[in-house]
Amino acid sequence: MKEEVSPQKSLEILSHYIIDSYNSAPEKPMGLIQFHLKHQGKNISCYLKADGEQMTFNFGELENYDVKLTAEHYNWLDLAAGRLNPVIGVITKKLQFEGDTKVFGKLIKSNSLFKIDADISDGPTIFEKKPIQNWSRPEKVMVILGSPRGRNGYTFHYLNRFIKGLETDGASVELIELGKKKVNSCTGCFHCWKNSTGRCIQNDDVNDLYDKFHESDLIVYAFTLYWDTVPGILKNFIERAFCLEYPYMIPGLYKTRHPRRKKLDQSFFVFSVCGFPEQSHFDSVKDYFKKISHNSHIPFIGGIYRSACMFLPNDPLYYKTYNRILDSIQEAGVMLYKNGRIDKKIINTIQTRIDPKEFQLHANKYWDNVVQRKDFFVSSV
Ligand SMILES: Cc1cc2nc3c(=O)[nH]c(=O)nc-3n(C[C@H](O)[C@H](O)[C@H](O)COP(=O)(O)O)c2cc1C
Q1: 7-111 has which CATH code?
Q2: Buried b or exposed e, range 191-205, using 16+ CB within 10 angstroms
Q3: Residues 15-52: tens digit of each pLDDT
Q4: Are 296 and 284 in contact (CB under 8 A)?
Q5: What are the angstrom distances between the C-alpha of 106 and each of 32, 112, 118, 199, 277?
Q6: 309-330 pLDDT tens trace
Q7: DSSP assignment string, 368-380
Q8: Distance of alpha carbon 172 from its chain centroid, rounded?
Q9: Mutate to test the pocket of ligand 1, among 145, 226, 306 (most ligand atoms within 8 A of CB)
Q10: Of 33, 35, 161, 201, whose CA–CA distance to 101 is shortest?
Q11: Which of 73, 168, 289, 309 lies at a CB distance of 3.0 to 4.6 Å from 273, suitable for a disulfide?
Q12: Calpha distance 75→52 (Å, rounded)
């Protein structure tokens, strides 16, 4: 269990920041600061002692000091954070100094408490902002099939045509069937961050998969909907991308994110199918991948979302629609490879609307036949 933080502990942690800042300063003045702090009615006395070489922090009271600060604990924290101006603090009696306040200013420099040496810059790139305008044909495409049934499922049934399209003009496509790989979930141990290795401590297939990921120019996440989101195996894979980033915090396009370990111009595309007929079933994954895109610095260049994926190949009355959809999916693969985008007309054909009432009627007939074990289907469940 993570213990609740005591006021003493918070002072100890703060003292580490102050000592760090003192140690990295070019000049190391001498001095002794005594603190008399109050927290929820209780007194805490502690001091910082700098001898010109090193600074130490201890609890207790000294008879001699250069300067003494008497304050509520929270007010001292506000002063250290730079949130409370010392002059205002004195005027409002939030802070009471006794002795040589110059020593205080020399030993504690709140503006340098959080300085680090590491270069953590990784701002948004031109490619991230405008991937289509800066498109060049991807040499390597990694298609991550996140539906557990792999090649035996409907995701692949449609995806196969998309891959054919991608390959038409020369893309080298590698299909990764996550269902055949060992992909554990992230255990949240932070090993990959603490050791700066960028490798996960778990001995499954994921480190190797992320090596391939880094070699790819375009990544296609292909999956079916499981309860309105990605199947668990794909979620596990995505979680493990934690390893690809440093733990530092930087501003992203519109919110905080982490810098990448490898700065590559990659993009990703989503290829998703689902059982229900309405397009709105994809809303949550569209939003999810927008967030994945931001957090991973990889632009999300588009998606194909085919609802009623089981219904179409199994309903003879939709055979024409089904074939038009398959042909358009292949055409979409060709277009994506060449231009990084797919014409709206092709997307509209792929996402041809299926009337929900008709769907329910036909799908129920299909399922009733399955339940009755009548064996005359084009594709089995
Ligand atoms: C556990 C499970 C959850 C599913 N959840 C959804 C869902 O939320 N929305 C939907 O439209 N279809 C859902 N489906 C239907 C699948 O999208 C459909 O069966 C699809 O064919 C499965 O992909 P696959 O054939 O590649 O295995 C679900 C299927 C399973 C097995």
Answers
A1: 3.30.1050.10
A2: ebbeeeebebebeeb
A3: 999 999 999 999 999 999 999 999 999 999 999 999 99
A4: no
A5: 11, 12, 25, 42, 69
A6: 999 999 989 999 999 999 999 9
A7: HHHHTT----SS-
A8: 27
A9: 226
A10: 33
A11: 309
A12: 28
Q: Whose CA is nearest to atom 15 of ligand 1?
A: 275
- Name the amino acid, one letter, at 212: K
What distance separates the 2 farthest-apart alpha carbons in the chain?
A: 95
In sequence order, what are the residues at sequence separation of 6 or more whose Cβ sits closer than 8 angstroms to the Cβ of residue 36? 43, 45, 68, 69, 70, 71
Q: Where in the chain is the domain with CATH 3.30.1050.10?
A: 7-111
Q: Are 199 and 207 in contact (CB under 8 A)?
A: yes
Residues of the chain with CATH 3.40.50.360: 147-371
Choosing from 225, 278, 283, 370 the residue with most ligand 1 atoms within 8 A of its CB, the one to mutate for a pocket test is 225
Condensed to tens digits (0 to 9), the pLDDT of residues 52-103 reads 999 999 999 999 999 999 999 999 999 999 999 999 999 999 999 999 999 9
Q: Say whether 67 sits in a helix, a strand or coil.
A: strand
Q: Which fold has domain 147-371?
A: Rossmann fold (3.40.50)
Take residue 46 and report the two structure tokens written for it. Answer: 């502690």
Pocket of ligand 1 (CB under 6 A): 147, 149, 153-155, 224-228, 274-276, 281, 309-310
CA gap 257, 196 in Å, rounded:
17
Tell me the residue length of the chain.
381
Q: Using CA of residue 349, residue 350, residue 355, residue 358, what is the dihedral sign?
A: positive
Q: Is 192 in a helix, a strand, or coil? A: helix
